[in-house]
Amino acid sequence: MKAGASKLGRRLVRWAAAIALAAVASAPVYAEATEVVHVVARGQTLVRIARRYRTTVEAIRETNGLKPGELLKPGLHLVIPEKGKEAEAAKKAAALHGGKPESGKKGAEAGKGAAAKKNDGKKKKDAKTLAAEARSRKPVTYAQKPKRPGFVRIVRGTEKLEAQLITRQGRLVPAALPGVTRMLRHTASNAKIPIDPRLATLLGMVSDHFGGRTIHVVSGYRPVTPTQYTKHSNHNVGRAVDFMVEGVPNTVVRDFCRTFRNAGVGYYPNSTFVHMDVRSTKVYWVDYSRPGEAPRYDSPVAQAAADEAAGDVDSAPGAGGAPGPESKKDGSPTSAVQDGGSAGTHPPPSQPVDPSTGNRSSQAPGQ
User: How far apart are CA 287 and CA 264, in angstroms?
Assistant: First the structure.
């Protein structure tokens, strides 16, 4: 009887040890220094991870060098940026991945070994030094010379358009307009109206600036609906587009679009697209809402300038995230403005729309 009890006791001990080891192996988060590193589990998305740590999809993506639309592999180590310490988090992610984004535990372990070897015998730099170095570095613009100037590749779902949209002198090719109009139609009803020629020209300029990278359209023309937050939107008249550029962070796309004169630019940190429209003034706004939510602008100026809310968009695959760290409990933004915020950026006096569609008439002076 005693032998049987002893045998059972040993089994219980082995089971308890196995369960403890499994729990340790599956732990999705660990901390190194002051940064939090999240280990991606099967089925997790950037949206859920961002919501868990109360940050944004864009912040995690930029810190870890992830490309827009890149799938997360189980075992990938992600450094979660802390507000005010983004530069340190980016440096930590680079060291973790061995200087380049590598997926999975194997890449993370290789990155740790490379970082340890590189820092062997060297003094660790303090936070102020790292922040100063980060500020001194030239920002990555992703700008490059296109192989075929003027040619664009626009993708929307399973549809795509490859055509010459503008000439080498930056003039619109009228024959390309019907194709752009088709790609920017209202997909739910298949309704379409002619797209504004200057909007098509600006899309061509965006394509050329980023080396002809693929432009993914999220939304174009949208008929007026009683539920839309913005009662008079340029989407309703074929003068606006929501899009992303493959392999380029939305913050970079946003900043380039803001060089256009007589254009509206909307930035949505918790969604996956940048809004661009053509108008008689130059305006900019930031909206922290997620798809389906009421708008949460960063300032009254932004609210006055906005052309749409994230909730107006038909569909934004992969959109989502968590409210920005500056948001109050009631969902409204605080008075503090993040980098790239729109408070104080009052639109300049109206500028006459130049009938020319060339580059020089589309970009603000000095750009």
Answer: 13
Instruction: Work out whether strand 215-219 and strand 151-156 pair parallel, antiparallel, or are unpaired.
Output: parallel
Q: How far apart are CA 157 and CA 177, in angstroms?
A: 20
Give the predicted TM-score (pTM) of the model.
0.56
**Interval 18-55: pLDDT, tens:** 554 444 444 455 555 456 888 888 888 888 888 888 88
**Domain boundaries, given as residue ranges, for the chain:** 2-136, 151-362
Cα–Cα distance for residue pair 213/92, rounded to 1 Å = 29
Which residues, including other chains, have CB under 8 Å from residue 246's CB and lie 6 or more apart? 67, 68, 69, 213, 214, 215, 216
29 touches 35 (CB < 8 A): no
Half-sphere exposure of 107 (CA within 13 A, CB side): 18
> Which residues does 25 contact at the CB level (< 8 Å), separation at least 6?
none
Whole-angstrom distance, CA of residue 16 vs CA of residue 170: 70
Share of residues in the chain with pLDDT > 70 (%): 66
3-state secondary structure of 18: helix
Half-sphere exposure of 123 (CA within 13 A, CB side): 4
Residue 365 in tokens: 């002076």
- How many C-beta atoms surround the C-beta of residue 135 within 10 A? 9
